[in-house]
Structure formats: structure tokens, C-alpha cells
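In this supplementary section we document a worked example of the pipeline. Step one takes a protein sequence of length 342 as its only input; no multiple sequence alignment statistics are reported here. Step two produces a three-dimensional model, which step three serialises into C-alpha cells for compact storage. The input and output of this example are shown verbatim.
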Amino acid sequence: MNKEASFDFGWLDFSWADKHLFWLLLVIPLLAVWYYYIHYKRSQAIRFSSLNGIASSGWNSIPALLFSLRLFALGVLILAFARPQLQEDETFTRKSAEGIDIVMALDISGSMMAEDFKPNRLVVAKEVAINFIKERPNDRIGLVVYEGQAFTQCPLTTDHNVLIRLFNDVEPGMIQDGTAIGMGLATAVNRLKESDGKSKVVILLTDGVNNQGNIDPLTAAEIAREFGVRVYTIGVGKNGKAPFPAIDPFGRKVRTMMDVKIDEPMMKSIAEMTGGKYFRAENRDKLESIYKEIDQLEKTLIKVTEFRVDPPEKFHSILLIGMLLLAVEFLLRHFIFRMIHE
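The serialised model returned by step three reads:
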């Protein structure tokens, strides 16, 4: 629909669907000229020799007035036929998201309380992961936690408020202690195997080595590959030693230094086998940058569809006015002034 012609009458902002009909308005001045030369000029040539003739000359202007009313009605009808429409934003956008299904597999073993991250690794890992979740509103995200065993803390969901609340509830000691990386990955993959998402991703975070569980991490990686699940692995912890809270024989809280042991070759193998990537985070800033990189690597596809809706038609009232004017002209010509003249 062509929307180039529009007129702003203060509180009304009209556009015209069939603006080419405006050419018909040229007929009105042509008819006026024709009437002037055919009727008005002819009436001027008449000479009266009595007062009755002078009195009757007043009636000669009535046909001209009626013809002017008819021309005005014709102009109104042409405007109605040009279909005035109220100017409105006709373009609407519909967005549909082809989301990505993501399961975050989080190590919550006791070593995640190490304080090389402030206040500790687990708190920082949760906070950074929650920020990641908030940046991906269109994705289904779930949470698996693991120590010596693994369980699903939250299945895949788009209700991220619930997911974040369950994230905040995670604490060490929820399961038996240990680090069952293979179990954590296998549980996450199990949550994704029936997924019909465009992309299926596991973010596997740990600060240790696999020492529990009856599923080897590389076996779990093979399962992930079979189901088309991409695994991003993150090793958390500084190189060397890290301070760890402990209780001395007298019941006092102390800090002891622990060796940081991450099975990086195994974590790299998991990522490579599944088409993912391995990252090492030695501080909060690095962990945040890792999640930002994963966010960029796994962008949700947003389909944007624009469609146009015709604005409200406003020709009905103008057409009614034009028809009323024609009716008034007809009544005046054939009844009112005719009876008066008689």
C-alpha cells in the first residue's frame, strides 16, 4: 500500500490509500467554469423592464448556490473514495527465539571452599553463573551439581527466577564428598539427550580431579558426543597452592594451604571430543571472561518477522457527509426552493 500522501490536520493525521483519485478533484473547477459560462453569463444578458423582473433576479442565484453545494458534495465524495486512514505505526515485529538448551554441571565438593577466589570458589562460581543465566533469557537452562555423586538440582527451564533461587541454595556437603566429574557430566547429558533444542551444551566446572563415581569422565564425553552435546570445561583455581578454611585441634578456625590439582589433560580431552573448549580460570575476572566467551560462542538465534497491518479506515464518516450533502442539495432543489418559488 502506498503511504506517500499524508496530511496533518492538527489532531488528525491522515494518509490516503488511493491518492491517485485526487486527480478527480480537477473536475470540480472545470464544472464550475462550465456552469459560469453556460448559466451565469447567460443570465447577465437578460434585461428586465419591471420591478417583478428585478425581484425575480434574486432567485437566479439560488441555482448557482445549489450547484456549488453539489460540487462541494462531489469533492467530499472524492476524498472518501481516496480512503483516508489514520496515520499509525503499521509495522509490527514478531520475534521468535530458537533457544539453546544448556545444563550447567557445577562441582560443589569441599575444595570449592578454597579462598583463592574471594570469598571462595563456590560463591564466585555461583555469582558468575547467575549473571550468565540473566543474559540468556531465551534459553532453557538446567543445573546439575556433583560431589561424590551427582543429581539434578534444576531440570531444563525457561523460568530463570526459579533456577537462580536453586542456584543460590547450592552448598557443599549436599551429597557425599568427593569429585565425580564423570557422574556430573553423564547426569547433565542425560538431561539433554531428549532435547530438541537447536544446540545442546554442557558447561562443566570443577576444581579437582575425578576420584569418585562409577562413570569415567571420558566415557561420559563419548556419550555426550553420541547425543550431539557440546561440552565446555572450566578448571577453577590458581596454580600452586590455595588457602583453605579448616578447624585446628582446639576447634579454632584456621587457614591451611592446599595443592591445586586439576586434571587439565582430561578436561581438554572432554572438550575436544565434543566440539567444545577448555578454559582455565585463576580469578574472578578470568571466570567472567570465560562465560562471556561461551555466551558469544553460543548465541541464541532470534528470528525477526516484520508484518504490516492496515491502519484504521476513516472514509466512512466522510462518505456519509458527502451523501448527506447530496441529499440536502436534492431536497433544496426539488422541494424547498421549488415550493417557495411557486
